[in-house]
């Protein structure tokens, strides 16, 4: 795993002028899942909506002209993160549009997945074929009651009864982040929706950033990793068909 916090000079080489000013680069992660890029959203919240729109490809602009406030800032941030994550890949200059399901789509045969919080937008891109990818980012929380309610909503029976016990426990918000990334990867591969309560997650025996994922689909194998970055849990997932 290689997580790179970008220096200011490096940002200038990767971003358009508007993107650099509005969405400063937070990190770039090169992994077997693909290239993941995160951008800060704080600066963009003080920028006029018209200026944010002008920083996009014209086809991307058409998707978000009716958006306002935080939704617009986050949408545009996701498109800038997508552009950076696809640098050097086929179709790198193509816009990030939306498919019939609403999931992001790009040209050139590349795959893309996007997620955001109030302060960060992230994109995971890969030009390799034969698998689906997913990314999710969630802010770390200290709301104990909220975490208990969340656990009831997302945890699988195996997670609730303790039959999965490899390694240290997983914080509920991190578990949510992993499952959301897995859901996106599985949908990208199969086109079917996989309920979060049907996804089970446990740490591998080695611990660290790698996680074991169990899904009730015999024709699909999923792997995931999750790390903590800038008070967020960042999770990447890949779904493949068994050989």
Helical stretch count?
Answer: 8
| CATH domain class name of the largest domain | Alpha Beta
What percent of residues adopt helix (DSSP H or I)?
A: 25-40%
CATH homology-level superfamily of the largest domain: 4'-phosphopantetheinyl transferase domain
Spans of 5+ residues with little confidence (pLDDT < 50)?
6-17
CATH topology description of the largest domain: Ribosomal Protein L22, Chain A
What is the makeup of the main sheet?
5 strands, antiparallel
* CA-based shape: globular
Radius of gyration: 18 Å
Mean pLDDT: 90
| Ends distance | 25 Å
Number of strands: 12
The count of domains is: 2
Strand order of the largest sheet: 1-2-3-7-6
Content-based structural category: alpha+beta
How would you describe this structure to a colleague?
- The chain has 243 residues and is an alpha+beta fold.
- The chain has 2 domains: 2-129, Ribosomal Protein L22, Chain A (Alpha-Beta Complex); 136-240, 4'-phosphopantetheinyl transferase domain (Ribosomal Protein L22, Chain A, Alpha-Beta Complex).
- Helices cover 32% and strands 29% of the residues.
- The protein contains 8 helices and 12 strands.
- The chain has helices at residues 8-14, 17-22, 49-54, 58-64, 69-85, 144-154, 157-160, 172-190, and strands at residues 2-4, 25-31, 34-40, 97-98, 104-105, 111-116, 120-126, 131-139, 200-203, 210-214, 221-229, 232-240.
- The strands form 3 sheets. It has a 5-stranded antiparallel sheet with strand order 1-2-3-7-6, with helices on one face. Strands 8-12-11-10-9 form a 5-stranded antiparallel sheet. A two-stranded antiparallel sheet has the order 4-5.
- A hairpin with a 3-residue loop joins strand 6 (111-116) and strand 7 (120-126).
- The two termini are 25 Å apart.
């Amino acid at each position: 795993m290689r997580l790179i916090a970008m220096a200011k000079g490096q940002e200038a080489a990767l971003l358009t002028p508007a993107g650099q000013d509005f969405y400063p680069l937070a990190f770039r992660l090169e992994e077997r899942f693909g290239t993941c890029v995160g951008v800060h959203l704080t600066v963009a919240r003080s920028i006029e909506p018209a200026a944010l729109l002008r920083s996009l490809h014209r086809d991307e602009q058409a998707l978000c002209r009716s958006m306002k406030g935080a939704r617009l800032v986050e949408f545009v941030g996701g498109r800038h993160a997508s552009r950076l994550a696809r640098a050097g890949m086929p179709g790198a200059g193509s816009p990030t549009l939306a498919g019939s399901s609403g999931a992001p789509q790009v040209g050139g045969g590349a795959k893309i997945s996007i997620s955001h919080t109030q302060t960060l937008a992230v994109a995971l891109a890969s030009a390799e074929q034969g698998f689906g990818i997913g990314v999710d980012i969630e802010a770390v929380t200290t709301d104990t009651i909220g975490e208990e309610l969340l656990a009831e909503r997302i945890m699988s029976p195996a997670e609730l009864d303790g039959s999965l016990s490899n390694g240290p426990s997983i914080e509920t918000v991190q578990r949510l982040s992993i499952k959301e990334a897995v859901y996106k990867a599985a949908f990208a591969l199969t086109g079917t929706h996989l309920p979060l309560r049907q996804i089970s997650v446990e740490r591998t025996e080695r611990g660290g950033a790698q996680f074991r994922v169990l899904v009730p689909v015999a024709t699909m194998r999923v792997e995931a990793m999750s790390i903590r970055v800038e008070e967020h849990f960042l999770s990447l997932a890949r779904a493949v068909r068994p050989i």
